[in-house]
Amino acid sequence: MWIVFALLAALASAIVVTLTKAGVKNVDSNLAFAVQAVMILLVSWSVILGQGKLPDLRTIDRRSWIFLIVAGVVTCLSSLLSFRALKLGNASQVSPLTNLTLVFSVILAGVFLKEKLSWQVLTGAAIMVVGAIIIATSRE
């Protein structure tokens, strides 16, 4: 089932890139992100409230809070940088580079989470790097 959710997330992300590129055309990229951030906040807390999960906030331990807060800050930085890249470049070239997050995630999972990385995972990551570079450096 996780594969279905992952593929739907990838599709949603592609739609976000397309809509964001259209949205930042005549808008400052930081302002555009701030608008989207408000919607993210409203939708995510609506889901929590709708599921009745608000009381679960008390069960989050200190270490998890730290990781989640730092991840939230990094998410904001990532989005700000992504929006700026989309403002300056073509979505078809920016997106492959921003999606090298897949490769960085594999590396970080191996280094920090101590996940075992098979040769298939490492080969796939290397192919993704080559593909992203080819797409990003292509001429229009």
TrEMBL record:
Keywords: Membrane, Transmembrane, Transmembrane helix
Location, primary (coarse class): membrane
Keyword check for Transmembrane: yes
Record field: transmembrane: 32-52, 64-83, 95-113, 120-138
Domain of life: Bacteria
Subcellular location: Membrane
UniProt keyword Membrane present: yes
GO CC field: membrane
UniProt membrane topology term: Multi-pass membrane protein
Domain EamA residues, every copy: 1-136
One Pfam family it belongs to: EamA
Family: Belongs to the EamA transporter family.
Family annotation (PANTHER family): EAMA DOMAIN-CONTAINING PROTEIN, INNER MEMBRANE TRANSPORTER
Protein name per its UniProtKB record: Transporter family protein
Species for this entry: Spirosoma oryzae
